[in-house]
Design a protein that fits this description.
The chain is mostly helical. About 85% of the residues lie in helices and about 0% in strands. The protein is globular, with a radius of gyration of 17 Å. Its main location: membrane.
């Protein structure tokens, strides 16, 4: 990559890492579009998956004490089952309409939970399986698995302290599977070092933001990032359509 492109990638990675440390998700929303535009679809997506896996591991190392491991594993199982179906759909349907549909689904799920609260249908074992399956499907089709998991977590009343590490376990699993399937991107050692450094700086900055957020402000931040992820997929789909 050129010097200018490298600087843009580093800034995007830093901003994405900050957002994800503060809210539990958002790296794919903030950084991935820049990575794809600058490095190309294949390398950009693979780089995004790799950096996201690294970021999840770093954030988890800082927050693991509050992780609900059983919930994370329970979400990962239906997600893993839904990934092949999503991959099949990607190769069978036009990208534009599919992205619009998937993004709208994510936004609707989050909005539904915010409005209905404890009456949300995403409760119990059935809600967990539904959220995990749709998240895995949405992740492989549009790269936005976060909104559906956020909807489930909100319906369960998870605190931000629980949500952040638990979602990292789930996203780490999805990204490791993706990297194992597609392979690592090819970057120069210096570019790897800069991206890794940007991740660490973003995590530190995100921790500072996280400490200043009240529980209610943190909840609104998480909802905003989840809705933005769905909206980004809808906009991208509409442009391609």
């Amino acid at each position: 990559m050129s010097t200018g492109a490298t600087i843009l990638v580093v800034c995007a990675v830093l901003a994405g890492a900050l957002t994800q440390r503060a809210t539990g998700l958002g790296f794919a929303l903030v950084a991935a579009p820049f990575l794809v535009v600058i490095a190309g679809p294949e390398t950009g997506v693979s780089l995004g998956n790799t950096l996201s896996a690294m970021l999840c591991a770093v954030v988890l190392a800082r927050t693991w004490r509050h992780t609900w491991w059983r919930q994370a594993a329970a979400l990962a199982v239906p997600a893993a089952i839904a990934v092949p179906l999503g991959a099949l759909v990607v190769h069978s349907l036009p990208a534009g309409p599919l992205l619009v549909l998937v993004g709208a689904m994510g936004m609707a799920a989050v909005a539904m939970v915010v409005v209905s609260g404890r009456r949300s249908p995403l409760r119990g074992r059935a809600g967990l399986v539904t959220a995990g399956s749709l998240s895995g499907f949405m992740n492989v089709t549009a790269g936005v698995g976060g909104p559906m998991v956020t909807a489930y977590a909100l319906s369960q009343g998870w605190s931000r302290e629980v949500f952040v590490p638990t979602v990292q376990v789930y996203l780490l699993f999805l990204n490791v599977v993706s990297v194992a399937t597609k392979g690592l991107p090819v970057l120069a050692p210096g570019e790897w070092a800069l991206c890794s450094g940007a991740l660490l700086v973003g995590v530190v900055a995100g921790e500072l933001v996280n400490r200043r957020l009240t529980p209610e402000a943190g909840r609104r931040f998480i909802i905003a990032v989840a809705l933005a992820g769905g909206a980004a997929a809808v906009i991208r789909g509409a442009v391609e359509w």
